[in-house]
Amino acid sequence: MTETKIFGHRGSMGTYPENTLLGFREAIRQGVDGLELDVHMTKDGEIVVIHDESLDRTTDGSGNIKDLLLDEIKTYSAGINYSHFPAYDADSWNSMKVPTLEEVLKLLRPYDIELNIELKTYIYNYPGMEEKLLSIVKAYSNRLKVIYSSFHLPSILRIKELDNTANIAWLLDECISLPKDYMETLQLEGLHLSKNILLKHPHHWKDLYNHLRIWTANNRNEIKQLLDLKVNAIVTDFPEKALFYRSERKLFV
Ligand code: G3P
Ligand code: CA
Q1: For the whole prediction, is pTM greater than 0.90?
Q2: Distance between CA atoms of 90 and 111, rounded to whole angstroms?
Q3: Is 201 part of the annotated catalytic residue set?
């Protein structure tokens, strides 16, 4: 069993603007084993990397992604709202735009890391999104292991139906009974659990630790517990800290 991987949540969202090329680049610099990001689909059918259904919280624009063209979305800054972060640099941060998935995949091309793409499909249905997503990943990712996840189970099942080799993982923030049965029946590669449902009853998931990616663990104590359980991956807003905690343990083995 390999060591627990550290995934940067939306890049390195505790220190850099979430879901931006800047944040992904920074997480790679820190040495992450994987990245997590969120996707929505624009009015003109492009896949963009952003957490919310709308531009309002993370950019200086407004409106729902589904109602906007990619060119309109690209007029807004995805970095300007983060001037409270210590590393804020107006020149480079303000010019950051909401990236397309294609742009992120091109950035990641040289790196041997894993990528978790979360389909944010539980509020709006984006017809044709799964097909589009698979075609972009096929065209622009080469060495990446891609894991598709969603809280909305039909989305990842559609992915699997379209590509039987795709790695799919179900996002859960509530416990389910007999999780192994779900994994086998739905051909899930993994389960992405909120930290609380794992840490409350670790024994419930005990045969599956190697298939569990746990979000979003940021403090030393919870990261330590997850490393002890040897889960597959920890998804964190502070990958640099988590990587340090992991490396620190090796010194005392
Ligand atoms: O992938 C786990 C986590 O990202 C799910 O929650 O709201 O941060 O997308 P959220
Ligand atoms: Ca997410």
Answers
A1: yes
A2: 28
A3: no
